[in-house]
Amino acid sequence: MSVGIRMAALDELIAAIDWRSAESLELLLARGARLDVFEAAAAGRLERVRELLGAATKRGARP
Fold first, then answer.
1. Which residue of 3, 9, 28, 41 lies most exposed, with the fewest beta carbons within 10 A?
2. Is 62 helix (H, G, I), strand (E, B) or coil?
3. What own/partner pairs with CB < 8 Å and gap ≥ 24 does 17-23 have?
4. What is the pTM of this model?
């Protein structure tokens, strides 16, 4: 994915989260958008937060 496309997708994700648009967020996720730990926390996606923190812990990082 090019940097420009990633930035556009990031802007859309942040807007969907900020506007609390569950429908828009679901559409973006269905189309392949991935939430990082900060976006997941802001969107209330606790399973994704746990998944990311678990992966970081397995690599030796500590939250």
1. 3
2. coil
3. 17/42, 17/43, 18/42
4. 0.70
Instruction: List the chain domain ranges.
Output: 3-58
Contact 32, 24 (CB under 8 A): no
pLDDT-derived band at 52, boundaries 50, 70, 90: very high
- Among residues 52, 31, 26, 33, the alpha carbon closest in space to that of 41 is found at 52
- Asked if residue 24 lies in contact with residue 12, where contact means CB atoms within 8 angstroms, the answer is yes
Helices and strands in the chain, H and E counts: 4, 0
The DSSP output letter for 63 is -
DSSP E strand stretches across 1-63: none
C-alpha separations of 31 from 11, 16, 23, 24, 59 in Å: 15, 14, 12, 11, 28
